[in-house]
Amino acid sequence: MSFSLGTITLINPFILAPMAGCTDLPFRLLCKEHGAALCYSEMIECHDLVARKPECLELLRTDAAEQPVAMQLYGNNPGMMGEAAAILNELPIACIDINMGCPMEKVVQNGAGAALMKNPHLAEKIITSVCKNSTKPVTVKIRSGWNQHTITAPEIAKIAEGSGAQAIAIHARTWSDGFSGPIDHRVLLQVMESVSIPIFANGDVTSHEEGLFLLKKLGCAGVMIGRAALGAPWIFSGRVNQHPSMAYRVKALLRHLELAETHLGPEPDLSKIRNHAWKYFRGAPTGPAIRKQIDATTTYPALRAFIHTLAERVLQQ
Fold first, then answer.
1. What is the reported pLDDT for 181?
2. pLDDT for 281
């Protein structure tokens, strides 16, 4: 089930979606270990990258073990997006993605993210600028449109292909839908009919089996999984029970902590790690109690100690 993205060959159709505050290097590596063929970074603001702001440069952290990896840019200025793309083009990454789907108010207020779904002219300028400044494949992540009265995905997809993009990921909800309501598979099919480049279906894929079903139903090139992968990196593997034992969950979380300490320092950001940690126990009978204990930790060493104590208890059962 491998396919090509420009000069890159993806070994399977399962892709980790970009998620702000979540898809940092340790989590991408973990998803890669569980079978993700391609992982996307957190979104990177073009002005901050061009200004070389330290907090932005942290987002560029990568490792050979996660290849192929995509870095995602967002912004509303074609020139700055092109400059930022030129910087990313020099990094050891596989491709560059353009964010045209983020619904966050602070992003769309500036005309970036999902706001570009109602501005095809500006979208074309941005995609063209990024493609001209990159020798690496460029992908675009879009939504169905701005609202149910403005379904622009097929039009934007044609523009993206004509401007040089080599794949499109579509979250088939509008900006006004946010993350609620049904995925509109009709729009996905319309987009697939409008272009010849690979299309990745995104939104509400909650298991490996669902991903396979969607691939068969739509005939798309890949499925991009976001929120359902948090605390469940095994979603990318067809060899793992999608409702694993507590022992498996704890082992996965311990590996996450190991990767975080290796790549982010001995005491990674507590709030970020806590946000990941409790999700490993969603759906488990003791999940709510474990979450309370995780939320009660006030330092990373305390969180780490709790997880190791939990591991000793669970693995001895």
1. 81
2. 96
Q: Which amino acid is at 177?
A: D
Q: Do 3-236 and 246-315 fold alike per CATH?
A: no
Widest pairwise Cα distance in the chain: 61
- ∠ at Cα 202 (178, 12), nearest 5°? 160
Looking at residue 248, what is its pLDDT?
94
Contact 43, 70 (CB under 8 A): no
Domain boundaries, the chain: 3-236, 246-315
pTM across the whole model: 0.95
Instruction: Tell me whether strands 167-174 and 8-10 are parallel, antiparallel or unpaired.
Output: unpaired
Query: How much is the pLDDT for 42?
Result: 97
pLDDT at 68: 96
246-315, what's its fold? Four Helix Bundle (Hemerythrin (Met), subunit A) (1.20.120)
| pLDDT of the residue at 1 | 65
Nearest to 165 by CA among 60, 118, 95: 95
pLDDT digits (tens, 9 = 90+) for 78-104: 999 999 999 999 999 999 999 999 999
Annotation says 46 is catalytic = no
H-only helix segments in 18-152: 25-33, 46-50, 54-57, 78-89, 105-108, 120-132
Residue 25 identity: L
Residue type, 299: T
**Are 206 and 213 spatial neighbours (Cβ–Cβ below 8 Å)?**
no
Q: Which residues are annotated as a binding site?
A: 18-20, 72, 141, 171, 226-227
pLDDT recorded at residue 315: 77
Residue type, 217: K
Question: Of the residues 95, 102, 131, 220, which is catalytic?
Answer: 102
- The CATH number that domain 3-236 falls under is 3.20.20.70
C-alpha 42, offset from chain centre: 7
With a cut of 70, list the residues of the chain below it in pLDDT.
1-2, 317
Q: Phi and psi dihedrals of 35, rounded to 5?
A: 120, 0
- CA dist., res. 131 & res. 110, Å (int): 22
Contacts of 133 (CB under 8 A, 6+ apart): 82, 83, 85, 86, 89
